[in-house]
Amino acid sequence: MTIFRKNKIAVALVCDERLATQAGAVAFKINSDWDFDVHIFVEKNSTDIKYFHRVECDGISYHINRLLHDFRDMLPKMDRYPVAVWGRILLPKVLSDYSRVLYVDVDILPGPKPIDLDKIDLPNGIGMVSNYWTRYHERIGHRRTIEHLEQLGLKAEDYFNSGVILMDPSKLNAEEVGNALARFVSHFGDNIKSPDQDFLAFHYKGKITQLSANFNFIQPLMGFGFEGGAIPCVRHYVMQPKLYEKLHNFGANSIVRSAQLEFLDMLEIAQLPANLLTPRHRPKFSRLIKNALRSVTASTIFGAPRRRKEYRKWQHMRSVMLELLLCDKERCADELPFTLAISEPKVYWSGTEFVCIRP
Length: 359
Fold this sequence. Notes:
The protein is globular. It has helices at residues 20-34, 91-94, 132-139, 143-152, 174-188, 195-203, 254-269, 285-296, 304-327, and strands spanning 9-15, 37-42, 60-64, 100-104, 108-110, 126-130, 160-167, 209-211, 217-218, 234-236, 347-349, 354-356. The model has no long low-confidence stretch (mean pLDDT 91). It is 31% helix and 15% strand. It has 359 residues and is of the alpha/beta class.
């Protein structure tokens, strides 16, 4: 029996022991600012019990190895993803007493509290935000993206980002989802690219309620000034390096560096140690030197050709993303709480990126 500490809406995070401390910082921020119960599910990669720091707070619960115990043997081993990524698919089974469950990844920054979650109509029990990065890549003819979608039998508009999922547990049959997962893994095997994301798009094709980008404002949408001075309720840092990893000089852009400062504040407020993780892939030394030189020459005549070339790419990407966001306004079950900024913001060239100048 679920004990509702706050209300019948819950937020859930699923991770392995490596990210459990960082998940606690996100959970504490959400619990404090949004006033929802938060459940952290830690699916360990090994049987060894590894220590991680926990947040001691009313409204935050930890669950160890509770989601995947019936599925571990059949799930494919992937170098890029821990087995925990599959766990979000099975959340309705263990959080069935809530009217809504909002799953969020660990690599997010919570913003303003989302309102009226239980009033968003989910006919098939699941709502997600379109994967604008995939749609952009399809638009520019990215071969691997197109092949990936063809393998799944999907169009880009059918493919959603699984970093944030809104669920109505009463409409999701846990046994049926588990059986579908077994069939999916058996069929695609080692060809699975993005495990949980591929499964959800494949299994729920045509049944996912589309949510606005406010619920999952992914990193490729940032840096274009779309949100003006507003902050989406979830900012999602999907690219490498991550905001919870140690950042090398000239190895991360301003978006990630700014996000990491907020993340460090969250760790401090939650009274957790700022033990940033070592990145899985250290930037090549040659790349760091190249970025350093580009920063030095950014405002000189030597940096002008690259600046012009990158500005054209920036403008094109902004134009495509804005078109996609505007096209989706009628498709979404909720409305953006801010007006999309149509005109280009003022930017400056750092030598490696264009950075928005805040009004």
